[in-house]
Protein 1
Amino acid sequence: MVIEKEFCKCVTSTSVYTIDDHWGYWLHCSDCNKKIEDEFHYYDEPDDVY
Ligand SMILES: [Zn+2]
């Protein structure tokens, strides 16, 4: 099984967008539609307690 590291390699991204994941969200590059490395953010909302 080939594990591809598909992260954005753009030097500067025109814009980014977020895609929700299980524990947080990834920032994605609008230019190449790949994840931006080290741009995973955990949901850390203290008010979001049920
Ligand atoms: Zn990119």
Protein 2
Amino acid sequence: MTDNKAVISLKDVSIFQQDNLILSDVQFEIKESEFVYLIGSTGSGKSSLLKVLYGELPIHMGTASIAGIDLLKLKKSGIPKLRRQLGVVFQDFQLLFDRDVHDNLLFVLKATGWKNKAEIEARIEEVLDLVGIKTKSHKMPFELSGGEQQRVAIARALLNKPAIILADEPTGNLDPKTSDDILTLLHQICKQSNTAVLMATHDYRILDKFPAEIMRCEAGKLRTDKLLKEAN
Ligand SMILES: Nc1ncnc2c1ncn2[C@@H]1O[C@H](COP(=O)(O)OP(=O)(O)OP(=O)(O)O)[C@@H](O)[C@H]1O
Ligand SMILES: [Mg+2]
């Protein structure tokens, strides 16, 4: 078996929010098609770590790359390119509420340089099919349930075939059954399209039901599953 490529690799990274050190000596690797949970109590630094990875929070020490992009050399002008390599999913879906599902997806494709109309329409249909809401293309976001809105957000994240999906508590606003459906979908995407997934969550029920690697933010450090096992 050949080794999968690392899609995220961080070493000796310190993460600050303004002048406050949130996580120090952060070190981990995520490979193609790996599914990893990021857990830790509120304020422990999960969202801060994800923000570093999608270029919202700059870092100034260590080495860090995601999808082949060096995060220490990342400039504001390089952020759109970085975002094209990633799919980001949030707790509150963050859809555009003034347009239908199709046009939410169209907006992203146009913003990321897609020009060919037939290719655009084919890709929109493809991602809606992948997340199981092909028939909702012309619904407005407010006409959809929370779970359906999250499926649109996941479809949007998949548009540019990202190497990795970063999800910050994607089930935080959903009931247990709908959360399970979204987790099933994320695990399916991970397996079928080799997309790595890094998902922050508070929900220990999910960790039991859909087991995968775990990283924990705790006392200013990031601890991996392996280290946790060794400590026990
Ligand atoms: N924009 C900001 N400016 C200053 N400090 C911030 C900012 N965002 C977060 N922080 C601080 O950074 C620390 C880590 O916050 P972060 O949002 O990463 O935690 P979290 O683990 O995602 O928590 P939660 O589970 O509540 O989402 C907290 O002490 C928080 O107050
Ligand atoms: Mg958070």
